[in-house]
Amino acid sequence: MTPKALWLAPLAAALLPAPAYAQSQGNYHVRNDTRITLDCGLRRERGSMMERFTLRPGGEWRSAEGGNRPRLLLCDAGGVPPRFQLRPGARNALVEGARGGLALAPIMN
Question: What residues have CB less than 8 Å from 64, skipping those under 6 apart?
Fold first, then answer.
């Protein structure tokens, strides 16, 4: 290799776009398929900071957050707030459970 090629190769490699997996971003999606308005929050497992949002009936919520680990979804529908684990890239719907509580169901395309 010539001396010029020795310094051009690393420079060219640095200018190439980074692969998608290097960005490490999780996309989270929840839809409210119940008849009630839900006050929810999303946080990292074992984390203390919570992103709060309100889901009206038929409404959807999306978030793109750093990291690709599951997040914990808590929704207040009266009583003890149920906890659900959201996996990045999965589309989910909150539905009414068998005993009047909430359940998380995957959205099939």
Answer: 25, 26, 27, 28
Annotated domain spans of the chain: 26-106
- Give domain 26-106's CATH number out of 3.90.1720, 3.40.960, 2.60.40, 2.40.50: 2.60.40
Which amino acid belongs to residue 48?
S
pLDDT tens, 46-105? 888 999 999 999 999 998 877 788 999 999 877 667 899 999 989 999 999 877 789 999
How many whole angstroms separate alpha carbon 82 and alpha carbon 34? 14
pTM score of the predicted model: 0.71
